[in-house]
């Protein structure tokens, strides 16, 4: 679908391969929050390894704006036509159920998000504020013209959310837990800032892993071997089996991002008697001008049970890496109030929503108003339980 829109030509693309990778990444580099998950390589890997396909309920409908004067990409958004609500981390199952109980179809819906990735970042990738406003308007117009129940934009930046709410989309809030680096010299320096009980518990957890004969090593993306990728994939699949669920990603996907964006990857491997038994994959990037940066906790799994190994592999080793590399933030992923006891603090997230059905839109608006009040009260309660010393 292509049409002229002011000085922009609109494209609705059925695959990320239809947009020039260099132009996409150059545009991304100009954004306020260009996370690694928004790189063209990440979307291309999902597509090429068939993790996101129409058969899987993820039909790519990437929205692009091309400047008709220069012929270059002016704005883009990763959009999917969804046949379910799996892999999103902003839950609308109750909305879908309400539609069904009233004899209405909730699916398909349009989703602007990074699949399987609850990380806040730019969703309206735009050259400037004008292009961003046009992209937001184009996205909403696409939803209004398509045969869908709704449009959902997950984990956008504040700037993106403002552009969308200015068009009448409803905003929803959530909570994650992030660790902030206060210039710590080392892990012990960080521990010294925590309440005594929490400091004692963390040391005890790490000691249990050590006394179980487990050693840890970290492997940067460019050094990860195929054997290590295959082992990590086994761990990843094991986590899903333990939760009676099917994994979203496959070994080919991990291999592909290992080849195309190794500078953003770190694998933590736990070993006992020279045998790997657990691993976690984290994603990271440097900040502007090579200073600071962010680490994103993503996937973990173990083939053997060792008390507290999850905390060591998925939290404490990445925290040590953050301190060593002088990264600013460690985003621990979706949910997880237990992270507070390990120095993570509550952080607000947001999403934007539009529903085509007027009555359901009104009902959801009332629900979101009530939910937002509960979220604010919950955040206040969490902040009262700050894990750091006064």
Automatic annotation (TrEMBL):
Gene3D superfamilies membership: 3.40.630.30
Designated name of the protein: N-acetyltransferase domain-containing protein
């Amino acid at each position: 679908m292509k049409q002229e829109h002011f000085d922009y030509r609109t494209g609705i693309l059925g695959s990320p391969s239809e947009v020039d990778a260099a132009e996409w990444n150059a545009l991304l580099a100009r954004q306020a929050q260009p996370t690694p998950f928004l790189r063209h390589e990440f979307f291309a890997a999902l597509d090429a390894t068939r993790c996101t396909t129409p058969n899987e309920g993820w039909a790519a409908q990437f929205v692009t704006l091309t400047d008709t004067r220069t012929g270059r990409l002016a704005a883009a958004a990763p959009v999917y036509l969804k046949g379910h609500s799996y892999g999103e981390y902003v839950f609308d199952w109750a909305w879908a159920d309400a539609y069904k109980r009233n004899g209405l179809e909730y699916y398909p819906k349009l989703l602007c998000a990074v699949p399987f990735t609850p990380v806040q970042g730019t969703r309206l990738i735009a050259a400037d504020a004008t292009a961003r406003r046009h992209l937001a308007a184009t996205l909403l117009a696409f939803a209004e013209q398509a045969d869908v129940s709704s449009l959902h934009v997950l984990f956008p930046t504040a700037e993106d959310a403002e552009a969308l709410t200015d068009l009448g989309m409803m905003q929803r809030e959530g909570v994650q837990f992030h660790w902030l680096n206060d210039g710590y010299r080392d892990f012990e320096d960080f521990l010294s800032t925590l309440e005594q009980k929490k400091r004692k518990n963390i040391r005890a957890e790490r000691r249990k892993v050590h006394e179980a004969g487990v050693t840890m090593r970290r492997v940067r993306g460019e050094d990860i071997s195929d054997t290590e990728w295959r082992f990590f994939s086994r761990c990843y699949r094991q986590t899903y089996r333990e939760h009676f669920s099917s994994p979203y990603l496959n070994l080919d996907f991990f291999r592909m991002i290992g080849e195309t964006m190794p500078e953003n990857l770190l694998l933590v491997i736990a070993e006992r008697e020279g045998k790997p038994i657990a691993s976690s994959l984290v994603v990271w990037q440097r900040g502007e001008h090579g200073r600071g940066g962010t680490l994103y906790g993503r996937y973990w799994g173990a083939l053997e049970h060792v008390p507290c190994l999850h905390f060591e592999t998925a939290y404490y080793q990445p925290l040590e890496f953050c301190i060593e590399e002088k990264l600013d933030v460690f985003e621990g992923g979706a949910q997880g109030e237990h992270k507070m006891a390990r120095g993570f603090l509550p952080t607000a997230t947001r999403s934007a929503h539009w529903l085509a059905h007027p009555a359901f839109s009104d009902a959801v608006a009332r629900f979101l108003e009530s939910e937002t009040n509960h979220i604010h009260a919950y955040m206040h309660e969490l902040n009262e339980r700050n894990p750091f010393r006064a």
